[in-house]
């Protein structure tokens, strides 16, 4: 079993079945004509996120998550307070990275979690809180996944399997624009037993925050998606327009606002109370309206795919 398979097994081992929590919000559905590409958020949209999002150290982690992750990764835990020390260090190292990025002019910085864990482990060894023979990339990946899957378990959102079937059957191209880390694409083979590129997602249209160093609601991720589309489909079809892209996400600030600013059509996913973020306290979101509101991923069939079928019929 190679390292990738090991990581997938860790995700499966630490996961458990979850159902979305109803939000009480009614869907707002209408066919959207001319959609050629679908882009999705991951956490809280395609997958139920126990904490509602990725990277919420202060609110979702417990000392035991660190201890269990270290032991499962083969580290020797020396001190009784190792868990609390690790939690403090992880929070501090993320904040330090964010501050350094902001000094370089990045308004919404993102970390590479492997670099963060390297610094955390180095400090823990210096403090004689843990012991390991060496720190290598394989160990860092294992600890990252062991910790993340304990502090923020995920599960496929209701309707995901049907949605993927529709994407494959109808031939729409799909991508990801998400706050994410290296392990995020592993959710697909972990739960759906296929990598995302085998089930309708375009490998060139994965825009993950850790690779860019910026997080949503930065416009950079959405502009990068457009740039990749222009490069990927320059001459084979008619030029791609922003309004032909539909972005589906669960956060009015991080998802709907930047997508609309770039010109995407937008769908608010309001299907799980854990992750729905209306952001009414933020002025820019007060009068912000998505094009549609869905409460189940299957509802996209009546919005995008019905329109697509009608347009095909009309062109015959």
What can you see in these coordinates?
It is a single chain. It contains 13 helices and ten strands. By secondary structure, it is of the alpha/beta class. The protein folds into two domains: 13-54 and 154-315, 3-Layer(aba) Sandwich (Rossmann fold), CATH 3.40.50; 57-151, no CATH class. A six-stranded parallel beta sheet has the order 7-6-1-8-9-10. β8, α11 (252-262) and β9 form a beta-alpha-beta unit. α1 packs parallel to α6 (137-151), α3 (63-72) packs across α4 and α4 crosses α5. The termini are far apart. The model is unreliable at 311-316 (pLDDT under 50).
Question: Short summary of the structure?
Answer:
The chain is α/β, with parallel strands linked by helices.
Total strands: 10
Strand content: 5-15%
Q: Which strands sit side by side, in order, in the main sheet?
A: 7-6-1-8-9-10
The computed structural class is alpha/beta
Task: Return the average pLDDT rounded to an integer.
Answer: 91
The secondary-structure element order is HEEHHEHHEHEHEHEHHEHEHEH
Shape: globular
Q: How are the SSEs ordered, and which strands pair?
A:
Elements: H1 3-13, E1 37-40, E2 47-49, H2 57-60, H3 63-72, E3 76-77, H4 82-103, H5 113-126, E4 130-131, H6 137-151, E5 154-156, H7 160-170, E6 173-178, H8 187-192, E7 201-208, H9 209-212, H10 219-232, E8 245-249, H11 252-262, E9 265-269, H12 283-286, E10 292-294, H13 305-315
Parallel strand pairs: 1-6, 1-8, 6-7, 8-9, 9-10
Antiparallel strand pairs: 2-5, 3-4
Helix pairs in contact: 1-6, 3-4, 3-6, 4-5, 5-6
Key descriptive features of the protein:
single chain; 316 residues; alpha/beta; Rossmann fold; 2 domains; six-stranded parallel sheet; two-stranded antiparallel ribbon; 13 helices; 10 strands; globular; disordered C terminus
């Amino acid at each position: 079993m190679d390292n990738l398979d090991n990581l997938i097994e860790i995700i499966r081992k630490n996961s458990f079945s979850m159902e979305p929590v109803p939000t009480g919000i009614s869907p707002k559905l209408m066919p959207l004509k001319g959609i050629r590409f679908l882009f999705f958020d991951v956490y809280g949209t395609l997958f139920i996120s126990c904490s509602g999002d990725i990277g919420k150290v202060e609110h979702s982690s417990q000392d035991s998550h660190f201890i269990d992750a270290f032991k499962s990764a083969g580290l020797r835990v020396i001190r009784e307070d190792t868990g609390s020390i690790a939690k403090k260090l992880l929070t501090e190292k993320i904040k330090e990275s964010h501050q350094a990025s902001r000094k370089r002019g990045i308004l919404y910085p993102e970390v590479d979690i492997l670099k963060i864990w390297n610094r955390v482990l180095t400090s823990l060894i210096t403090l004689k809180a843990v012991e390991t023979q060496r720190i290598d990339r394989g160990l860092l990946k294992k600890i990252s996944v062991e910790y993340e899957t304990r502090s923020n378990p995920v599960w496929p959102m209701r309707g995901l399997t049907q949605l993927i079937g529709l994407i494959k059957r109808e031939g729409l191209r799909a991508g990801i624009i998400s706050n994410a880390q290296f392990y995020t694409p592993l959710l697909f083979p972990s739960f759906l037993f296929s990598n995302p590129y085998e089930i309708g997602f375009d490998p060139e249209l994965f825009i993950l925050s850790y690779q860019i160093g910026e997080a949503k609601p930065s416009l950079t991720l959405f502009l990068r998606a457009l740039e990749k589309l222009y490069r990927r489909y320059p001459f084979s079809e008619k030029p791609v327009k922003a309004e032909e892209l539909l972005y589906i996400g669960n956060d009015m600030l991080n998802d709907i606002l930047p997508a609309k600013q770039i010109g995407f059509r937008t769908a608010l996913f309001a299907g799980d109370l854990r992750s729905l973020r209306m952001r009414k306290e933020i002025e820019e979101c007060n009068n912000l309206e998505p094009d549609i509101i869905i409460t189940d991923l299957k509802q996209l069939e009546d919005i995008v795919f019905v329109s697509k079928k009608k347009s095909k019929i009309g062109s015959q």
